[in-house]
Design brief:
six-stranded mixed beta sheet, 8 strands, Aminopeptidase, alpha/beta
């Protein structure tokens, strides 16, 4: 393993065997995979970074424990899981970045990620940084607690909200959020001392 290169690990949440949020024309597991792959491509363009993936192909749906084990065994510097949100009500909207609630480092990285995504996208809705466990998730999100490295879980908007869902149907938002996640990852790696 080349430890001269920073090693972020990207996780496109869920998979075809375990679909989650859905809106007409927007499927969370498909969009999350595309976003994660796009971010990996952007990071690979930086010769200082060697990103890893928890899924080798679109058709894979590894268990959460397998995703975490893959990143742990690779000695990743940071784990970033990408999702899209939903709610029984169509009213909630917003971007969310979750971190392990007992980690001050995690909070600092989540703040950097949220700022980078907001700047890149110009998103006009609420952007929340949330420690896990939280009022919504009473138990700590598995990938945040079980990784050996700092981890973030990004919820890129509510598919149950028409304004958020429409962002993924056309226009520049998908590319912009990928650039935001890429920039946030670079800032996180700098904060961790893995990049100058």
């Amino acid at each position: 393993m080349n430890r001269l290169k920073a090693r972020p690990f990207l996780d496109g949440g869920h998979g075809p065997a375990k679909p989650k949020a859905y809106a007409p024309g927007v499927d969370e597991q498909a969009v999350a995979w595309i976003l994660a792959e796009t971010v990996c491509g952007l990071l690979e363009a930086d010769p200082r970074i060697r990103p890893g993936r928890t899924r080798a192909s679109y058709w894979e749906t590894p268990r959460l424990s397998e995703r975490v084990a893959t990143a742990n065994q690779a000695g990743a510097d940071i784990f970033i899981s990408i999702h899209l949100n939903d709610n029984p009500s169509p009213r909630p909207r917003g971007l969310e970045v979750y971190y392990y609630g007992r980690s001050s480092t995690g909070q600092a990285l989540a703040d950097k990620m949220a700022a980078a995504i907001t700047e890149a996208t110009g998103y006009q809705g609420p952007v929340r940084v949330i420690g896990s466990p939280s009022p919504r998730y009473k138990t700590t999100l598995y990938v945040l607690k079980r990784t050996a490295m700092p981890a973030l879980l990004i919820e890129g908007g509510f598919l149950s909200n028409r304004q958020d869902a429409d962002l993924y149907k056309n226009g520049t938002f998908p590319g912009a959020i990928c650039r935001g996640i890429q920039r946030g990852t670079v800032e996180a790696l700098k904060h961790l001392g893995r990049l100058p």
